[in-house]
Design brief:
The protein has helices spanning 2-15, 18-31, 34-37, 42-50, 57-62, 74-85, 88-99, and strands at 65-67, 115-117, 130-132, 137-139. It is α/β, with parallel strands linked by helices.
Protein backbone atom coordinates (compact mmCIF):
# COMPACT_ATOMS: atom_id res chain seq x y z
CA UNK A 1 0.00 0.00 0.00
CA UNK A 2 2.81 2.40 0.85
CA UNK A 3 4.40 1.91 -2.57
CA UNK A 4 1.04 2.51 -4.28
CA UNK A 5 0.45 5.71 -2.30
CA UNK A 6 4.01 6.92 -3.02
CA UNK A 7 3.61 6.25 -6.74
CA UNK A 8 0.17 7.88 -6.84
CA UNK A 9 1.35 11.00 -4.99
CA UNK A 10 4.38 11.24 -7.29
CA UNK A 11 2.12 11.00 -10.33
CA UNK A 12 -0.38 13.61 -9.10
CA UNK A 13 2.16 16.16 -7.87
CA UNK A 14 5.01 15.62 -10.36
CA UNK A 15 4.34 13.61 -13.50
CA UNK A 16 0.81 14.79 -14.33
CA UNK A 17 1.80 18.47 -14.19
CA UNK A 18 5.23 18.15 -15.77
CA UNK A 19 4.19 19.19 -19.31
CA UNK A 20 2.08 22.23 -18.26
CA UNK A 21 4.83 23.29 -15.86
CA UNK A 22 7.51 22.98 -18.56
CA UNK A 23 5.37 25.11 -20.90
CA UNK A 24 4.91 27.71 -18.16
CA UNK A 25 8.62 27.69 -17.29
CA UNK A 26 9.62 28.10 -20.94
CA UNK A 27 7.31 31.10 -21.37
CA UNK A 28 8.36 32.61 -18.05
CA UNK A 29 12.07 32.30 -18.83
CA UNK A 30 11.50 33.82 -22.27
CA UNK A 31 10.20 37.00 -20.60
CA UNK A 32 12.38 36.83 -17.49
CA UNK A 33 15.67 35.03 -18.24
CA UNK A 34 17.06 32.96 -15.35
CA UNK A 35 20.33 34.90 -15.29
CA UNK A 36 18.39 37.95 -14.05
CA UNK A 37 16.98 36.00 -11.09
CA UNK A 38 20.28 34.50 -9.91
CA UNK A 39 21.37 37.80 -8.35
CA UNK A 40 18.68 37.47 -5.66
CA UNK A 41 18.74 35.46 -2.48
CA UNK A 42 15.58 33.35 -2.10
CA UNK A 43 14.14 35.73 0.52
CA UNK A 44 14.82 38.75 -1.73
CA UNK A 45 13.24 37.01 -4.72
CA UNK A 46 10.15 36.29 -2.65
CA UNK A 47 9.81 40.00 -1.81
CA UNK A 48 10.34 40.98 -5.46
CA UNK A 49 7.65 38.59 -6.67
CA UNK A 50 5.15 38.82 -3.81
CA UNK A 51 5.80 42.23 -2.27
CA UNK A 52 6.16 43.02 1.41
CA UNK A 53 3.76 40.96 3.50
CA UNK A 54 4.46 42.81 6.75
CA UNK A 55 3.99 46.56 6.73
CA UNK A 56 5.07 49.30 9.10
CA UNK A 57 1.87 51.34 9.04
CA UNK A 58 3.42 54.30 10.87
CA UNK A 59 6.16 54.47 8.22
CA UNK A 60 3.44 54.41 5.58
CA UNK A 61 1.79 57.38 7.32
CA UNK A 62 5.07 59.30 7.31
CA UNK A 63 5.44 58.78 3.56
CA UNK A 64 2.06 60.28 2.62
CA UNK A 65 1.97 63.42 0.49
CA UNK A 66 -0.96 65.75 1.14
CA UNK A 67 -2.68 67.73 -1.62
CA UNK A 68 -4.91 70.59 -0.48
CA UNK A 69 -4.58 69.22 3.04
CA UNK A 70 -2.13 69.76 5.87
CA UNK A 71 -0.96 67.01 8.15
CA UNK A 72 -2.51 68.95 11.04
CA UNK A 73 -6.02 69.15 9.50
CA UNK A 74 -8.76 67.55 11.60
CA UNK A 75 -9.85 65.28 8.73
CA UNK A 76 -6.33 63.91 8.38
CA UNK A 77 -5.85 63.43 12.12
CA UNK A 78 -9.21 61.66 12.36
CA UNK A 79 -8.39 59.46 9.38
CA UNK A 80 -5.08 58.27 10.86
CA UNK A 81 -6.58 57.76 14.32
CA UNK A 82 -9.27 55.51 12.88
CA UNK A 83 -6.83 53.81 10.52
CA UNK A 84 -4.38 52.82 13.26
CA UNK A 85 -7.21 51.33 15.33
CA UNK A 86 -8.23 49.00 12.48
CA UNK A 87 -7.21 45.33 12.58
CA UNK A 88 -4.41 44.26 10.24
CA UNK A 89 -6.85 42.66 7.79
CA UNK A 90 -8.80 45.93 7.36
CA UNK A 91 -5.59 47.92 6.88
CA UNK A 92 -4.60 45.56 4.08
CA UNK A 93 -8.07 45.95 2.58
CA UNK A 94 -7.49 49.72 2.52
CA UNK A 95 -4.15 49.14 0.79
CA UNK A 96 -5.96 46.98 -1.78
CA UNK A 97 -8.53 49.74 -2.29
CA UNK A 98 -5.76 52.29 -2.74
CA UNK A 99 -3.30 50.37 -4.89
CA UNK A 100 -5.05 47.27 -6.19
CA UNK A 101 -2.92 45.00 -4.00
CA UNK A 102 -2.84 44.25 -0.30
CA UNK A 103 0.94 44.23 -0.42
CA UNK A 104 3.55 46.88 -1.01
CA UNK A 105 5.72 46.27 -4.11
CA UNK A 106 9.17 44.73 -3.72
CA UNK A 107 11.16 47.94 -3.53
CA UNK A 108 12.02 49.40 -0.14
CA UNK A 109 9.08 50.16 2.08
CA UNK A 110 10.45 53.67 2.66
CA UNK A 111 9.99 54.41 -1.06
CA UNK A 112 6.27 53.59 -1.20
CA UNK A 113 4.32 56.84 -1.21
CA UNK A 114 0.71 57.74 -1.83
CA UNK A 115 -1.24 60.98 -1.76
CA UNK A 116 -4.28 62.02 0.22
CA UNK A 117 -6.15 64.56 -1.85
CA UNK A 118 -9.04 66.88 -0.98
CA UNK A 119 -11.49 66.56 -3.92
CA UNK A 120 -12.79 70.07 -3.13
CA UNK A 121 -16.46 69.27 -3.50
CA UNK A 122 -19.14 71.87 -2.85
CA UNK A 123 -20.86 69.46 -0.49
CA UNK A 124 -18.27 66.95 0.77
CA UNK A 125 -20.93 65.08 2.76
CA UNK A 126 -22.32 63.78 -0.53
CA UNK A 127 -19.01 62.13 -1.54
CA UNK A 128 -17.49 58.85 -0.51
CA UNK A 129 -13.72 58.37 -0.29
CA UNK A 130 -12.32 57.08 -3.57
CA UNK A 131 -8.95 56.10 -4.95
CA UNK A 132 -6.98 56.21 -8.16
CA UNK A 133 -4.95 53.01 -8.18
CA UNK A 134 -2.71 54.09 -11.06
CA UNK A 135 -1.52 57.29 -9.41
CA UNK A 136 -1.91 56.11 -5.79
CA UNK A 137 -4.20 59.00 -4.90
CA UNK A 138 -6.72 58.65 -2.09
CA UNK A 139 -9.51 61.20 -2.42
CA UNK A 140 -10.76 61.96 1.08
CA UNK A 141 -13.62 64.47 1.36
CA UNK A 142 -13.50 66.81 4.33
Amino acid sequence: RKEYVDLYVNYVFNESVQKPFQDFMQGFLRGCPARNWKMFLPVELQVVLQGHITIDWHLLEKNVVYWLYNKSDKTIKDFWNVFHELPEEKKKMFLGFLSGSDRIPGYRLECFKFSIVDPQAENPDELYPSASTCSLNFYLPR
